[in-house]
Amino acid sequence: MKRNVIEINEETCIGCGLCATACMQGAIEIIDGKAKLVSESYCDGLGMCLPKCPVDAIHMVEKDTDTFDDSRKNIKAKTHDHGEEGCGCAGSAAKTIERKPITTFELQTVKTITNTAPQKTSEPTGFIGSELMQWPVQLRLVSPNAPYFKDADLLVAADCTAFAYGDFHRDFIKDKVTVIGCPKLDDNNYNIDKIAEILTANTIKSITVVRMEVPCCNGIIHAVKEAMLKSKCIVPYREVTISTDGRIK
């Protein structure tokens, strides 16, 4: 039957994921850093994704195709799916974070909290600003074509490290684009492929890998080194190990 469905220009697409977020039928996924129509039968032809595309890579066409699969109507709203990259979760949309000066209100809020909370140490208290430069940070959610990867110093961190090391933002995240993952719980082959895609699609200036001292964290080192070999992109590289009591080893 003839009906309206979308077409995606993959050469124009930047893989930001906004179209996938807008599509309630799950018809669009981010695959290999590009938006792709999973099945024409999933597209309802309403074009909710069109105004979300910042580079005008999506257009509506009328063509002979399969009937719309009505069982998928508002499938995301029904399932509350918040899975991996391209699932349509609003939290996976790529954005660069611009840091603003700390406001008087923020400082006063911190003072109120710290003055009423039990004081367990003699360390000075106050507002500690975030150094995060981009969103998302989960390796499975980032798009290799996100603009913040261009000419970036890349931080690849095992996700426990930021909890173990108290000054993680200032000592590691500052001035770097950050991706995190768990080499024990994640599919490390996926991590290898994803990091290789990032290296292939961008000019990465350096990579810093931060891992925990536990043996399973060797996987994050393996993933980065294998990704450099796979992509044939060997860049300045640094490893840092954090002990379980929060010290640099």
Structure keywords:
24% helix; four-stranded parallel sheet; 249 residues; two-stranded antiparallel ribbon; elongated; 7 helices; Alpha-Beta Plaits
How do you describe this structure in short?
The chain has seven helices and ten strands. The protein is α/β, with parallel strands linked by helices.
Distance between the termini: 65 Å
Q: How do the strands of the widest beta sheet line up side by side?
A: 8-7-9-10
Shape: elongated
Low-pLDDT stretches are 79-90
> What portion of residues belong to β-strands?
15-25%
Number of helices: 7
Q: What is the domain tally?
A: 2
How many distinct beta strands? Answer: 10
Question: Could you walk me through the main structural features you see in this protein, from its secondary elements to its overall organization?
Answer:
Helix 6 (188-201) crosses helix 7. Mean pLDDT is 84; it is low at 79-90. This protein has helices at 18-22, 75-79, 104-116, 161-164, 168-173, 188-201, 218-231, and strands at residues 2-8, 28-31, 34-37, 58-64, 95-96, 134-135, 153-158, 177-181, 206-212, 237-242. Strand 2 and strand 3 form a beta hairpin. The strands form four sheets. It has a four-stranded parallel beta sheet. The radius of gyration is 21 Å and the shape is elongated. The protein is of the alpha/beta class. Helix content is 24%, strand content 20%. The chain has two domains: 2-90, Alpha-Beta Plaits (2-Layer Sandwich), CATH 3.30.70; 96-242, no CATH class. The protein has seven helices and ten strands.
